[in-house]
Amino acid sequence: MNFIHVTLIIIFGFVFIMTILLNFVDKEKIPLMGDFFGKVLPKMPKLFSQSKGKEDEESP
């Protein structure tokens, strides 16, 4: 299998698993989970990027 097949399997697997999990979660907790993902996911690229030094941090 090439890279595209593996990527599609991962994406559809994630959607399938999340659909099953959300069916068993209390309806009151779903907005709380959405707020958590809304705060965490934008920060993910910063965790994996390499820091280039203090010059980049000080610039606006």
Question: Tags for this entry?
Answer:
60 residues; mainly alpha; 4 helices
Describe this structure in words.
The chain has helices at 3-24, 30-40, 44-48, 54-58. With 60 residues, it is an all-alpha fold. The chain has a domain at 3-43. The chain is flat, with a radius of gyration of 17 Å. The mean pLDDT is 78.
Count of DSSP strands: 0
Q: Percentage of helical residues?
A: over 70%
Report low-confidence residues grouped into runs of 5 or more: none
Quaternary state of this entry equals single chain
- Helix count? 4
Strand content: under 5%
Overall residue-averaged pLDDT value: 78
The termini sit apart by 44 Å
Biggest beta sheet summary: none
Structural class: mainly alpha
Order of helical and strand elements: HHHH
User: What gross morphology would you assign?
Assistant: flat
Gyration radius (Cα, Å) is 17 Å
Could you give a quick summary of the protein structure above?
With 60 residues, this protein is mainly alpha-helical. Helix content is 72%, strand content 0%. The termini are far apart.
Topology:
Elements: H1 3-24, H2 30-40, H3 44-48, H4 54-58
